[in-house]
Amino acid sequence: MPRSDSGYADLRDYAVIGDGRTVAAIARDGRIDWMPFPSLDTDPVFAALVDEARGGHVSLAPVGPFESTREYVSGTNVLRTTFTTSTGSAVLTDALVTGVAGRLPWAELARRVEGLEGSVAFAWQVIPGEAYTGDPVQRVETVHGPVLKVGTIDLVLVGFEHGRSDGPLSFEGAFTTSSGSRHLIALCGTDDEPIHLPDPRIVDQGIDRSIDNWATWSTVFDYDGPWADAVQRSALALKLLIYSPTGSIAAAATSGLPENPKGGKNYDYRFAWVRDLAYTVGALTHFGLREETHAAVSWVLTTFKAHGDELGIFYTLDGRQPDGVRRTHAEGWRGIGPVESGNRAAGQLQLGVYADVLGIMRQYVEAGNILDAHTGSLLVGFANSACRMWQKKDSGMWELPKKRHYVTSKIGCWRALDDACRLAELGELRPTADDLEHWQKNKRLLEEWIAANGWSEKRKAYVMYPGSKALDASVLLHTSSEFGPEERMRATVDRVREELAVGPHVYRYSGVDQEEATFVACGFWLAQALGELGAVPDAVARMDALVDSANDVGLFSEMIDPATGDFWGNLPQGLSHLALVDAAIAIQRARGD
User: Fold this and answer.
1) How many angstroms separate the CA atoms of 154 and 145, rounded?
2) Does a cis peptide bond (omega within 30 degrees of 0) precede residue 2?
3) What pLDDT sits at residue 429?
4) Does 1 map to a domain?
5) What 3-state class would DSSP assign to 351?
6) What is the pTM of this model?
7) I need a labelling partner for 294 at 20 to 30 A (CA). Which of 275, 513, 536, 553 fits?
8) Residue 41 in contact with residue 250, Cβ under 8 Å?
9) 499 vs 457: CA distance, rounded Å
10) pLDDT computed for residue 228 by the predictor
11) For the segment 236-276, what is each residue's pLDDT rounded down to a tens digit?
């Protein structure tokens, strides 16, 4: 729990709460070090996670030494932290409050402290930062009290029994709990719009209402298979990444966290990747969650229709094309930078996106839904485009700068055409006879190309690209398809397990261990692949170990150091939790549960 000498907490120390619009990352010591106000992709004015000195934070903790334990309220994304000192104990409940009818039109962070035993002296601060935005913090006096401004973000604070005594550019105070006492701090924020000043007693009620809202959602969640607690927590983590104003799904809740100690791999994942959305739709459909799946499908189709033939690999959460990359003023977590806003992969050609799009639609239809005529014609166009594009070099799933004929991209195109043929068979696509013949012909051509160029008889594996000896863990995603001879896929999985796995964890591709830690999703993909290929005991053992590698509240980052267990990369990472869910479902099926 202690922070490093530089003031940074370990990445494993963070839990995340949210309201369907934004998130807050809370360390074990009760300090919020990341919170974009009011939306997840807004420049955060609380960003100590990537700049301890100037990033801004919201602290609330006992004065002096303490111990803490924490957990999510069952079935919710509301966090409870219990502090114990030499004089007593108290519990902190943290929630981003939701309204009577769902998400509030403003962001409302509520922090409630209740005394349990004895007395505990607490101190708290709300200190906005300027490291991310570069905008100075300003204080504005109004008839209803002070407002702190950072650029176009306005912040106000209310509460009760909180001992408020503000600084010139901060909200702060102190109080002491007693058995049964109740104390509240509530921070509200808006972006370039009027700000609502809530009644703190209504905010207090809102914490309990938010707990009830999350719990109600969890009663609809339907899963009773193995690793049920981890699967439900992963579903709740994914729910935090769903941007409710549009239905899009962010890849991660944070930005700029490093993937290695050297720096240079600090990416912004607060965008909606088509790939992640495809996997999420599949998972949520399995759990019987209708609203989220339809909203995600509707969002992606609306976005595609708005951009015509431009099939991007990711978009902003409101459906726009990303508008470039800029360097922020933040130093980076523990000084590891640079921290950028935006993602340089925008505009890359990734052929796997065809499989993602058509895969979403096939899952959606097979779950009992119906496509409209405009969507059907759009998908016919995408399938025809896959036929034209598959012979090109691309950047692959891993968004690599060197364009090559990545083998898993070709398998993805095969899957896209297979899904298109299946949708036509179901009557949801209406291609011409020439279109359908063209799809089937290109499926055969892809099979021939991959057999001739992607398979290495010497390596006994599908390699990363023609002529390479390297392995690519993303091939594990295709074990569930009917692609290729099963013995070749089985042999490739064996090579991946032998060469890319370290314990239960797996690197993305050969040689990348010199640049980064193991990729959490790849470990779950291997467990899933083993289950689908019948190696159930090995799959179960790997799943047990991977589930145990989560942090204390069940969350995963993007990467894990297999030697130390340290988290690296952004968190919570949607792909990590999606992979856990998919692996659990696949192994459940393989065991015949």
Assistant:
1) 13
2) no
3) 95
4) no
5) coil
6) 0.96
7) 553
8) yes
9) 17
10) 95
11) 999 999 999 999 999 999 999 999 999 999 999 999 999 88
**What pLDDT is attached to residue 99?**
80
Closest listed residue to residue 33, CA positions, set 49, 21, 19, 45: 49
Four-residue CA torsion sign, 325, 329, 333, 338: positive
Give yes or no: residues 86 and 158 share one domain.
Answer: yes
Count other C-beta atoms under 10 Å from residue 188's C-beta.
23
CA 180 to chain CA centroid, Å, is 37
The gap from C-alpha 128 to its chain's centroid, in whole angstroms, comes to: 25
Strand, helix or coil at 326?
strand
On whether residue 2 sits in a domain, the answer given is no
Go through the chain and tell me how many residues it has: 593
Cα 26 from Cα 51, distance rounded (Å): 15
Domain span including residue 68: 11-218
> Can you say whether residue 493 is alpha, beta or left, with left for phi > 0 and alpha for psi between -120 and 50 degrees?
alpha
Q: Domain check: are 201 and 131 in the same one?
A: yes
Q: Which amino acid is at 482?
A: E
For 249, 284, 413, 445, 532, the CA distances from 574, given in Å and listed in that order, are 9, 13, 23, 34, 22
What confidence score (pLDDT) does residue 312 get? 86
Contact yes or no for 257/50 (Cβ under 8 A)? yes
Question: In which residue ranges of the chain is pLDDT below 50?
Answer: none
Given this model, what pLDDT does residue 101 score? 67
Phi, psi of 582 (to 5 degrees): -65, -40
Report the C-alpha gap between 60 and 447 in whole angstroms. Answer: 59
Residue 172: strand pairing partners:
125
Calculate ∠ Cα 284-287-290, nearest 5°: 60
Model pLDDT, residue 409 = 97
Measure the CA angle with vertex 331, ends 329 and 334; round to 5°. Answer: 160
Q: Which two tokens stand for residue 185?
A: 């701090």
Tell me the CATH number at 374.
Answer: 1.50.10.10
**DSSP per residue over 86-125, as a string?**
SSEEEEEEEEE-EETTEE-SSEEEEEEEEEEEE-EEEEEE
My answer on whether 234 and 323 are in the same domain is: yes
Q: How big is the CA angle at 28 (ends 566 and 23), to the nearest 5 degrees?
A: 90
Q: Checking DSSP bridges between strand 314-315 and strand 272-273, what pairing results, if any?
A: antiparallel
194 and 228: one domain?
no
Q: Is residue 5 part of a domain?
A: no
Is the separation of the CB atoms in 126 and 187 below 8 Å? yes
Of all residues in the chain, what percent are helix, strand and coil, respectively (each to 5)? 35, 25, 40
Identity of the residue numbered 125: Q
Phi, psi of 318 (to 5 degrees): -105, 15
Q: Contact 55/330 with Cβ under 8 angstroms?
A: yes
State CA 515 to chain mean position distance: 22
